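ESCALATION

Customer reports they have been waiting on this structure for their group meeting. Please prioritize. Original submission:
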Amino acid sequence: SKAWRSSPKKYRRDTHFLTGSAKELRLMVVGSSGPSQFQLTNSILGREAFSKDVTCISASVKNKGELSGRPVTVVNGPNIYDKDITHPKRKMELRRSKCLCIPGPHAFLVAFDIEKISPNDMKTPWLLKKRFGSNCLKHCMVLFAYEGNLDGASLEHRVKKTEWYLRELIEKYGGRFHVFKKNWRDRSQDKELLRKIELMVASLGGGHFSSTTFQRAEESVRREEKRLGKQRAEEIERTWNEMEQQYMSEELCFHKDAYITNVRAEIQAKAELDNGWLRTSLARGLGTGLVVGAVIGALFGSIEGAGGMVLYGIIGGAVGGSAGGTAQVAIKHMENRHFVHKIINSFEYSL
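Update from on-call: job pushed to the front of the queue and completed.
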């Protein structure tokens, strides 16, 4: 496949992406029907983000973790052929999934069960182009789920040489594919999956996929972050002053850092789940509002990070009990309260 035959010169130019362990990969996982996309997410994260009984979801979900040591954000939405979701709801969740993956995914991972390929599955490239834009297929890879008692190498041969319909399916995605075990506890394929994803991204210049709708999603999220930050200005100032009275020097800096990091994580999560672009979609077809708090709880409940539980114990729950220590954005050098206002007024991230 052309996607894997990148020239040595281009490969070297993108080496910083392939070896940059600090850079987070944003992965949009797409499912046609059934549990395959949720099995894939579990396999990527190495934990049961979705229970084994989950075959569909009604709302888009974002999880964070690591794939073979590389930080990843994984976004799942409702299955393409989920018959229980209305058209307005489907449109809403498509928008929400884009907000959860701003400024855009590095890769779309399209999951199928290798033993249950249907005529609908063969139509997924057309539907993905309709949802994300014609160029999205360049950023796609097919992932085939299989039972652990089968041999992965023989399955790859089967896809390439034996089953014409499997070959036809992956050719629509540029020939890029990977087979993975449904048992997420088996970590033997992590490095190979990461290698294939990184190679695909590097062959496209090392950047992420973008489109006018992803740009609109990012703009709407940033506006909402700024609005929410202004709403919390007094709370931030009050907590800041309390910490200045309670702590000294390096200890004070640590707690200020942890507090603002968590506040920003909460604000970012809320803005991704509920913003002007989503409310427009809601007003057009879905009626009543969003249960943002519950979704944020689900989002952050499965993610662990530094300092969260300790922080809440120290400052008496001044942060609203949802983000924990899960923020990925570190804010340094907070030496005076003017920085608080700078945070509130800018909300500019390095993504």
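Sent to customer with the following note: Confidence is low (pLDDT under 50) at residues 1-21, 286-337.
Escalation resolved.
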